[in-house]
Amino acid sequence: MGESSLYPSHTTSVRTRPLAVAVVACLAFLVLGGIAGGGAEPEGWYAELTRPDFPVPALLFLLMGAAYYVLVGIVLYRAQVHVPPGGPRRWAVGLTLAVLAVNELWNVVFMELRSLGAGVLGTGTVFLLLAALSALVVRHDRTSFWVLLPYLAWALFDLVWSVELLRLNR
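^ that's the sequence the OP posted. Answer follows.
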């Protein structure tokens, strides 16, 4: 369908309710993830794992970690404002919230339960949710697609890395 004048795709003013929903949702998942994963000790068992030969550059890891909630927050806001009402909007908002939830959950499972297999399942689920969300928003809000693209690429890299981590530590 593409961006159309039938929807507020070209709105210049910020809509406060969708913005509040996006900010509160991202902050809530950030806080809940911090609380749930607060007791994890990545230095212990994780330090002893054999890691893949293609390490994540530390700067890229920090940048993506810092950008994640901003990128997803932008997409959540835009899903409420720029995606047509009804099914497409419900799916876009639901998939975005699912990405936030599963991203926090897999981190807890991976670090707290020390389960490499569950980590692969989690990263795979996040990647599939992001791919589905990207396929949806590219039809209704290309800006959201471009905002998601770096994190989609990151999630694919993370999935490949997690599979290799599991393989090396069987």
